[in-house]
Amino acid sequence: LHYSPNQFARGLKLDKSETIGVIAPDISNPFFADIIKNIEKECRQKGYSVLIGDSDENPLLEEQMVERFESRKVDGLIIAPVGLSFSHLIETYNRGLPMVVVDRSQQGLIIPSVTSNNYKGAYEAVELLISYGHKKIACIQGLANSQSNNDRVNGYIDAMKKYGFSSNELLISGTGFTVENGYESTLLFLKTDIKPTAILALNNRISLGVLQAVAEMGVSIPDNLSLISFDEQVYSAYLNTPMTTIEQDKPEIARLAVQYLFSQIDDEPAVDEQNNEEIPTKINMRKSIKRLL
Q1: Beta strand spans in 86-155 (E)
Q2: How far is CA 108 from CA 85, 112, 284, in A?
Q3: Each residue's pLDDT tens digit, 7-52
Q4: pTM for the full predicted model
């Protein structure tokens, strides 16, 4: 008879919309697209639909989206925050909306979060470059003072210092997780007297900017410059010079985020508000790193 239940009326009756909101800083970024895809898959298996919002790396737009999703009575929210202030998220969480933060968190956050072990991933990448004989290693960072960026930068700094490099030998530049930042920072490094022999790019967009800059300047990877990038992408192995990457476990990040969210939705007593999970990373070795020893 082609009968279709009225989901809106059903939601009012059950006080559940069976809908989850997901907000990402940039859904055109393959990293966040993969996270969303895996979240949608996990939610679909539970009979829930997903509403997606793109905050376009704009904190004000993010706040508006959080309010909009809350007014739409979503049953929970998974968000990769943009700015450095989490106050609007904490206020919404304290009003009773189940929430999980992914990818970008901060110390002491009461909202459950799932991130990669950014510190260890960056530390191991620098150790690898040093073991290959590199002594002039540059780090192109993303959004300064964001927790994920801070952890990666600290991993870079601590690894350099462990192997005897002084503060004056640290080469850190960058202002955002963007292609433009990677491009401009690389040009800056290559035009200085102390040219790095290797670059650690702290996300996939930054590494694309690095590739654009070296192509323009006629610099060869890995002959003239080695490159390792945070985050594995489908194209990483298929570049002219396959790129060495620090891979984040995106399916596991999505799985745990959904698990923690539904623990709140189902009001399970075992939910720990301080549950901040860090997922291990791994290095995918390819040809973008040259051995100097």
Answers
A1: 99-102, 113-116, 137-140
A2: 13, 10, 32
A3: 555 555 456 799 999 999 999 999 999 999 999 999 999 999 999 9
A4: 0.89
